[in-house]
Amino acid sequence: MWLFVGLGNPGDKYKGNRHNIGFMVADALAADNHFPAFKSKFQGEVTEGRLAGEKIAVLKPMTYMNESGQSIGKCAKFYKIPPERVVVFYDELDLPPCKVKVKQGGGSGGHNGIKSTDRHLPSKDYWRVRLGIGHPGDKNRVSGYVLSDFSKEEQKDLPFFIDTIVRYSSLLLEDNKSDFGTRVSEDFKI
After folding, report:
1. What is the CATH number of the domain that holds 30?
2. Which of 19, 34, 120, 135 is catalytic?
């Protein structure tokens, strides 16, 4: 079994925020693959289904970003999913908007959701799907930037970007996960 996690903050207030792109991917992944409705469990919302023949749980932690790892750790422990079968989708300031990179392990890059995940999984060997949101240009503006909605210009490309991620998400189940990033980048050119 695999665990796909979308990071974000709960509530309508945050729904369209850049910080919630992980939730947007989780929702689209579940909907496009006809998973049942999300249910409250593990301090989050979770649904289960199949993707490319593999059993998948899709989780949206409802603990707010800074404590996402609590929910992820509980869910992974319940299903006995090792870190190397956990894939976390989250916003990345250091990538241009609508760019994607995949890596296993590594540092948090200052992302509080990743810091929390590191604390609650037995190792840092989980997969990170970094979804570019761009940088506001000044570190003092980062908090307001990630907690603001995508601009009207960004919103034009966002649905296609998310659709492209979902379309190739089954590649994340294969050994060479870099194929996922390559295919998304090839298909999604602004």
Report:
1. 3.40.50.1470
2. 19
